[in-house]
Amino acid sequence: MEVVRLGNDVLRDHAVPVEEINDEIRSLVEEMFDTMVKSDGIGLAAPQIGRSIRLFVVRADDGVKRVFINPQIIATSQEMCSYEEGCLSIPKYYDDVIRPERVTVQARNENGRRFTLEADGLLARVIQHEYDHLEGILFIDRIAPEKKAKVEEKFRKKAAKETV
Ligand code: NI
Fold first, then answer.
1. 97: CA distance to ligand 1 center in Å?
2. Cα radius of gyration rounded to whole Å, the chain
């Protein structure tokens, strides 16, 4: 599976809900975990592999593989914190992003079971980053506009080179 990069329109789409959690979705989830681990990532959202559906996978520092299908962030803490983020779709760029410290998320897993999770630390961070992907939002949208413009320009040039 190839991870799509900044500049690909699919990253900017508002992803649609998963209608049925079936074997196709379960094998997609497995492939996404494989791709994520191979790329040294800790989270991967379906739009990043070219599927504009509301699904992401996470494996944060506790090592637990978590699947979020049709997730909803139902609460966020007032306390904010800064953390350096990166994204498999924006390789080799890292920057500090301020987000709520804790989140509560509701979703279904790959078996269709609904769950509610209260997360803090790195897990809360990854969940928010991946959730953003489903809304067509990238972490560079949350940094200074002039820095974002530079990153976008760099990737535009790279993409132009690759298509020549
Ligand atoms: Ni990302």
1. 12
2. 15
116 CA from centroid of ligand 1 (Å): 22
CATH code given to domain 9-163: 3.90.45.10
Residue 162 pLDDT class (50, 70, 90 cuts): confident
SS3 label, residue 80 = strand
Q: What is the largest CA-CA distance in the chain?
A: 48
Q: How far is CA 162 from CA 75, 126, 155, 157, 158, in A?
A: 42, 30, 10, 9, 6
Q: Could you tell me how many helices (H) and strands (E) the chain has, helices first?
A: 3, 7
What are the tens digits of pLDDT across the range 138-160?
A: 999 999 999 999 999 999 998 88
Q: Which of 130, 146, 153, 162 is catalytic?
A: 130
Ion ligand 1 neighbours (CB, 5 A) are 87
**How much distance in Å is there from the Cα of 129 to the middle of ligand 1?**
6
- Judge whether 20 counts as a catalytic residue: no
Separation between Cα atoms, residue 163 and residue 141, nearest integer Å: 26
Is the Cα torsion angle 21, 36, 104, 85 positive or negative in sign?
negative
